[in-house]
Structure formats: structure tokens, C-alpha cells
Fold this sequence. Notes:
Elements lengths: L1 H29 L2 H9 L6 H11 L15 H4 L2 H5 L17 H36 L4 H15 L2 H15 L15 H31 L2 H8 L4 H21 L2 H7 L2 H7 L4 H10 L3 H29 L7
Helix pairs in contact: 1-15, 2-3, 6-9, 6-12, 7-9, 8-9, 9-11, 10-11, 11-15, 12-15, 13-14, 14-15
Amino acid sequence: MLAYIVRRILYAVPILVGVNLITFALFFFVNTPDDIARMQLGQRRVTPEAIEKWKAERGYDRPMLFNPEARGVQKLTDTLFFRKSVSLFWFDFGRAEDGRSISHEIRLRMGPSLAIALPMFLVGLGCYVTFALGLAFFRGTSLDFTGVVLCVAAMSISGLFYIIGGQYLVSKLWNLVPISGYGDGVQAWRFVILPALIGVVGGIGASTRLYRTIFLEEMSKDYVRTARAKGLSERRVLFGHVLRNGMIPILTGVVVAIPALFIGSLVLESFFGIPGLGSYTIDAINAQDFAIVRAMVFLGAVLYIVGLLLTDISYTLADPRIRME
């Protein structure tokens, strides 16, 4: 088991290095420090002196990969690549263009993002699997047909409709929860319950239909027919065999949601005014703060790799045969 986990970690290292190199190339070769300075200072009446001053104040005046004027190891460390890219590996994200620490902002905003994403992830997964199992259990009946039609209809509706409709109905007409904003302490639940509920409802169509297809495919396999031939009830076959084997492909899809638990939902946080990492990223893009965007891209890659590792570990729990690989 330990060797299996170590191999998966070693596989992730070159992926993370590749993401780091591509991100550095996009932000410093395609979009040079001079271009970043012009965007921050404004395109009009920008003098070369102002650009050089802006770069010097923020550490963008150093050479890209190699500093011939430095001594010893500083030839490699006193460069843009080391200070702005390699430092990300020990989570030194530096400072935003307004001077604030990016790491400090991430720690502050991670809580609101988790307050929305974690219940949305757990409740959503439970609801989707339960509904899909129910439709698979009543396959071929009018209940199954109605459920599939409703899933397709839910998939066809834009997520913005759920957000705007939920704000209008629940917050404005019924006045049950605030329409936007965020509170501290125990009052925070009043601000996160609506966006979390909308997130669950928005994904119920696609996820339920996908999981139903997975369960129906499992129900047509030989081991299910063998279990039925032994006299097991349909309910026991469904929950004792189909559910466990069907969770293997479902766990693969769940990986996509792991980074969102920490980075947050860009759309939900922006519409509901939640001061999480999702709205932090949107604000950075609008302000063209590439230091924040670069940090969030790297953090998202790290979290995705962690999600892959957790999924591989969960595979060993769902299918013991994987432990022998």
C-alpha cells in the first residue's frame, strides 16, 4: 500500500513541474514584465522610466533565467524564474500588485470557500448517488422515465437561472436568507446555505443521469447475474454489489470537485458576494493582477494532483485488486 502511494506521488512531481514551467512561460515570455507594467500603469503616457521604476519596485527587473552579474548560486536564484516561479513550490506566493501578501489573503478566504464548497460537495454527492440508485432500481418504469426527463430538463437550464431565480424567490420574495454578503461566526450559515443549495440543484441533472448510466452498466455484468442466481434480493444486489463497483468510475469524476473545495466557485461567490478564493481570483483577473492569477493557477494544479492521489487511495478501498499493482 505504501509503495503504491509513493509511486503515485512520484508520478505527480513531473506534472507539477510541467505546470509550473508552462505557467512561467505564459506569464513572462508571452506576456513580458514590460507588458504587465503597461497594463498596471495604463497604456497612455507611460514613459520608459515609469516602467523601469514599477518593475524595480516589484522585482520584475531581474533577468529571466540566468543572472550573469550575480555571484555564485545567485546567478540562478536572483532571477525571475526562481523568485516568481520556483518559490511557488514552497508556497511562497509573494505579494499582489497592491502590496498585500497573497498567502495571507488565501488563508483568510479559504474558510468562506470551504463553507460553501464542502456541504455542496458532500450533500450533492449523497443526493446524486441516491437518486441514481433509485432510478436504476426502478429501471424501465414510468418513475425511471420521468426522472430521466427531469434530469435532461435540469441539464438544459443555465446555472445562472438557478442563481438569479434562487435569489429572487428565496431571498427577495420569501425573505428567508440574505441575498448576498457574508457574516462571521455562527451567522455565516445564513449566507452560505442558499449558494450551497443552488450548487447542489444546479448539478443534479447531469450527475444523476451519469451515475444512473454507470449503475445500469454494472447491473448488466456477469457478477450481478451470478448474485441473482444465488437468490439474493434485488435490493441487496443493488446496494451490496452494484453500488460498490459503480463507485470506482464515480470517484474518478469526483476528482474534479477537489480543487473547487478550496478554490471555491467563481460564479457562485461572485454573484453572492462571498469573500472566498473564487471571487478573489475573479477580482484579480479584472484588475489584471497577474501575481494573484499565477498563484491561483499553481494552487489549483497542486490541489488537483492531491485529488488524484486521494482518488487512487480510494480505489484501493473500493477495489482491493488495485493494491496488488
